[in-house]
Amino acid sequence: MSRTDAEPAQAPPGLMIVVVGPSGAGKDTLMAIAAQHFDGRSDVQFVRRAITRDTDAGGEAHLAISDADFDALATAGGFAVSWEAHGLKYGIPADVHDSLRQGHLVIANGSRSALPHFQKAFPALTVVNITARPEVLAERLQARGRESREDILRRLARGGLDVRGDFDVVTIDNSGDIDDAGRAIVAALERALAARA
Length: 197
Fold this sequence. Notes:
Layout: E1 15-20, H1 27-37, E2 44-46, E3 50-51, E4 63-64, H2 67-75, E5 79-85, E6 88-93, H3 96-101, E7 105-109, H4 115-121, E8 125-131, H5 134-143, H6 149-159, E9 169-173, H7 178-196
Parallel strand pairs: 1-7, 1-8, 2-7, 3-4, 8-9
Antiparallel strand pairs: 3-6, 5-6
Helix pairs in contact: 1-7, 5-6
């Protein structure tokens, strides 16, 4: 049985924070702001995900891994959580459990579709949902030049922007000034640290 499927006997003293949100919401930017704020804190860990894409593909700093190596690592229990989305495989390293056992705050970039897996793997879990108004998301995504504004708005309307399910959720609207949203994510993590103290 993999660690993802195992039922933990009791919640560890640490807390897993999984950051989710639609494309264009600014997750990577806000996580980078938070990581800089907490730099040097041994009790706050930002997870480097394993992803089956090249290191220079852009976006977050990640561990680039081949499909075969990813599958081998997953079989060996190397991931606390793993999932597939948009033709890629994503994995959260299993060693995050060690940090949680030490009472640390662990922050990982996740996906709304993978939240049931996170919930199963981490009894103490908070979801930080980064979002923005649909027209703001559409403008940001249109600037990437991959879809028309109309196609983007239709896709956003179908997918919704909320987290569905029985989760402890903190929602941060990143429609405006990035500094405001940056302060909001830092404050949310500070509150989480204070609650675990």
